[in-house]
Design brief:
Chain lengths: 120, 520
């Protein structure tokens, strides 16, 4: 049963429907092994933005304050979309890469395990 | 003709019967089901309301007398506390941050509980539970008032205490306790009473009140100790009601068991997630510590709660689902929570700081399996940055759990180095959860939780700015406007303790010596 309610067939408004975000959609981004950032972050993005723009222009503002960030070898990074491996094409848009409203992606940076290897 | 004596004193039993059970009646002009429309849709079957055993033999006249006496004592002590500048006797100004979390996060729940029990007093058709709910509704209102009155003294001297009710309805982290109660109040009456009276008041309340009241006593806060004592006898009544109501439902019909068990599972997990704030307070915010969160969890849940569920086994009730996950998290919870607030200290109405060397040694001693390996490195990194004048904060907003609304900071039950993420899809949209516990709750009633007011998403929808701003204007900066909407004063209420007016003032009043915690 989708809800236990007094009136049969009760339905409520979805608070975070995509159309409420003024032309943008939500994207969650996490960075594995860097728990100094307490949780993945949430940003509003244009679905037409390229994945390359995301990594080159947006990620530095989110994660650039970590000493590991400057040493990331972008040729070797791995991504996950939800729990699935994800191989984004940097030239294509977020939407064309299969990211939808409220997609959650995680950056894995082999060899970089946070402050002193502590997963921070 | 002989006059019948009209002023004879009633026996206790007689008075009790007249002033409780005798106050109810079966309606005849309207059907009982129409008068009490809310007590059947949840599926709980009650065949005989008269089988309800009143958990406390208290009538309204006695209730007012007892409560009036407690009030007189409480206010006499608060007066003395204020007149003797009791605020100067606390261990350190850092301590007050725990009270800020309490006033903005917990006291409004007392008021919400008042409303919830008032609704129950109307919604349930059995007169016994209606009377009990009525008394508890008044208790909860009293608790909200006494807490607000007591803590108001600190508001004269410290920041962050000035607008607790406004903040409770808006501030991002306060949506955690607020949504917990809203979830219960928007359920039916039986779920509400299981959620609040049983799962919270009976199973988890010791984990809230013991740390706050002992923490207050250890840290010289006589005001908080006093309202705690004043509430204590009420709390024992509330606990008894919680246990009684669960037994009553289970005895009335065997089909009630799966419904009640599902609520016990849900509300254990909901309550436990709210207690994340308490874990943080115990391990990080008290200059003089009482015990660690892990120790409190072992005593008050694993031992006491284990015994309770042992007793309930004869009704077919088992331990709440995912209690073993809570056990695995006990060495991590407070550190994760402090990390969240250190990340977002610039957007909170209380201060954070890096624990001192002595305090880190205590954490290391209490959490040998996790602290040095997983949590000390980040604290030392932050400390070094702060000493260079570069206090670190997280500039992006956090991803929140759809159900508990805590940032997605919890780690996999079997791997403390990986964030735990769970996902569901409902009507084609993705929803994210911090745990299997929260995912199960969503999957049980998705139509309810798609309506959740998640503060981060609300900010991005443009719903958290004051009315006088134009978010489309050139040069618009969101964060200062969100803080203005929250009534959080930048540079006063939030940010690092070391840079705060609270610290500056405290040193002016007490001398710049080291905190009493370290010299005592």
């Amino acid at each position: 049963m989708p809800v236990i309610a007094l009136n049969p067939g009760y339905a409520g408004a979805t608070a975070d429907a995509e159309e409420r975000f003024h032309g943008q959609r939500l994207l969650y981004i996490g960075w594995a092994d860097h728990l100094m950032f307490c949780s993945p972050v949430c940003i509003p993005v244009s679905s037409a933005m390229s994945f390359g723009t995301l990594t080159e222009q947006v990620l530095p503002s989110l994660y650039g304050s970590h000493p590991d960030f400057a040493t990331i070898d972008w040729q070797r990074v791995e991504w996950r979309h939800g729990s699935e491996p994800f191989a984004p094409d940097p030239a294509r848009s977020l939407a064309d890469n299969g990211l939808v409203h409220k997609s959650s992606i995680t950056l894995h940076t082999p060899g970089l395990r946070g402050l002193g290897g502590s997963h921070n | 003709m002989t006059a019948t004596p009209t002023n004879r004193r009633l026996g206790l039993k007689e008075k009790y019967a007249l002033l409780t059970r005798d106050l109810g009646w079966d309606t005849t002009y309207q059907k009982m089901d129409d008068v009490f429309p809310y007590d059947s849709f949840e599926g709980i079957k009650i065949h005989d309301w008269d089988r309800w055993e009143d958990p406390f033999r208290l009538t309204m006249d006695a209730y007012w007398k007892f409560q009036g006496e407690k009030e007189k004592k409480l206010y006499a002590i608060i007066d003395a506390f204020q007149q003797s500048n009791g605020q100067l006797n606390i261990s350190d100004a850092r301590y007050l941050n725990a009270i800020k979390v309490f006033l903005t996060g917990v006291s409004p729940l007392e008021y919400a509980a008042h409303r919830g029990y008032a609704m129950l007093g109307r919604g349930l058709r059995g007169v016994g539970p209606r009377i009990a709910s009525q008394m508890q509704a008044i208790d909860e209102l009293r608790h909200a008032q006494t807490q607000v009155h007591t803590i108001s003294h600190y508001n004269k001297y410290f920041n962050g205490l000035h607008d607790f009710h406004h903040m409770h309805d808006r501030l991002w982290y306060l949506s955690v306790p607020k949504s917990y109660f809203d979830d219960a109040m928007s359920a039916g009456p039986f779920e509400f009473i299981t959620a609040i009276s049983f799962s919270f008041e009976y199973v988890l309340t010791n984990l809230l009140f013991m740390p706050f009241m002992s923490g207050a006593a250890f840290n010289g806060d006589m005001a908080t100790v006093t309202f705690g004592f004043s509430a204590q006898s009420d709390e024992s009544r509330h606990m008894t009601l919680g246990l009684e109501v669960v037994k009553f439902m289970l005895e009335q019909d065997p089909e009630n068991l799966p419904i009640v068990q599902k609520w016990i599972d849900k509300w254990f997990w909901r309550g436990y997630r709210v207690l994340t704030l308490v874990a943080m307070m115990m391990d990080y915010m008290l200059p003089k510590r009482v015990m660690s969160w892990a120790e409190a969890w072992e005593i008050y849940f694993e031992n006491n709660g284990g015994a309770l569920f042992g007793d309930l086994a004869r009704y077919g009730v088992r331990m709440p689902k995912y209690h073993e996950v809570a056990a695995k998290e006990k060495d991590r919870l407070s550190h994760i929570a402090w990390g969240i607030f250190y990340n977002y200290t610039h957007a909170a109405a209380f201060h954070t700081w890096v624990p001192s060397g002595d305090e880190m040694a205590w954490l290391s001693h209490k959490y040998p399996a996790t602290f040095d390996e997983l949590y000390r490195p980040r604290l030392e990194h932050w400390d070094a940055l702060e000493k260079r004048g570069e206090r670190w904060v997280n500039n992006a907003l956090p991803m929140l759990c759809q159900v508990c609304q805590v940032p997605m900071a919890f780690t996999e039950p079997d791997d403390a180095t990986r964030i735990c993420q769970r996902e569901s899809s409902y009507h084609g949209m993705k929803f994210h959860f911090c745990s299997d516990g929260c995912k199960d709750i969503f999957d049980g009633e998705p139509e309810k939780y798609v309506q959740a007011w998640l503060p981060v998403h609300q900010i991005f929808q443009g719903n958290c700015f004051p009315e006088d701003v134009d978010p489309t204007a050139p040069g618009f900066e969101a964060l200062p406007e969100v803080l203005r909407y929250y009534h959080v004063a930048v540079g006063q209420d939030g940010g690092d303790f070391n840079a705060s007016p609270d610290k500056h003032n405290w040193e002016r009043w007490t001398g710049p010596a080291t905190p009493k915690a370290q010299t005592a």
